[in-house]
Amino acid sequence: MEQEKLTVLNESGDRIGVASRSEVHEKGYWHETFHCWFAHYDESRKGSFIYFQLRSDNKKDYPSLLDITAAGHLLSDEKIEDGVREVHEELGIIVGFEELHSLGIVKGELFQEGMVDREHTNVFLYSNPILFEEFQLQQDEVAGIFRSSLEDFKSLIQQVTTEIDIEGFIVGKDGDKAYTGQKVGYHHFVPHARAYLLEIIERLEQQLTLKK
């Protein structure tokens, strides 16, 4: 995986070269990614809900933290449409690219020891209601799926509150889903910049308002 070839971009998003995934992260090159957020308006509960994946304990980067529903890098020979494979691979959900709503491109940066991750992210929304029972997770990547109300998640990112309630499931070693609810804080999530997450939330709100 570390030798996968990614397209190198400049800060404006122009393509300027190709490098291995490891070199891209080591040198902090801008590159292209695909993010798909699952969120929908629940008529019966009169509110919108957003879904997060729980990253596997075995992940090299940010293990055991909550993150974007499905996400991945676009390889140098891939088109944006090819990113939909991440949804099927990670979540076991077959989604057609035409079923997604584009939320545009959002720039984001993540920093940790030994890695600088600078992304031009193609962001999409899958807004069809989905049951927890439908998820079939790639367990070496994803350990569970949780959701919260979009309003609660926004309050957490805006620092209006320090904890929110989430509900969902964790997959055990036997493959069975253990359903649970818990309270989580910002530190339970991959540390995307608050400004980035607030931009995502605003775009989700706009799109879900159109869907009501």
Question: What keyword list fits this structure?
Answer:
single chain, 212 residues, alpha+beta, Nucleoside Triphosphate Pyrophosphohydrolase, eleven-stranded mixed β-sheet, 4 helices, globular
Detailed description of the structure:
By secondary structure, the protein is α+β, with helices and mostly antiparallel strands. The chain has a single domain, classed as Nucleoside Triphosphate Pyrophosphohydrolase. It is 19% helix and 41% strand. It contains four helices and eleven strands. The protein has helices at residues 21-27, 85-91, 150-157, 194-211; strands at residues 5-9, 15-20, 30-42, 47-55, 66-67, 70-73, 101-112, 115-126, 142-149, 164-171, 177-184. Strands 1, 2, 3, 4, 5, 6, 7, 8, 9, 10 and 11 form an eleven-stranded mixed β-sheet that branches. The N and C termini lie far apart (41 Å). The relative contact order is 0.19. The model has no long low-confidence stretch (mean pLDDT 94).
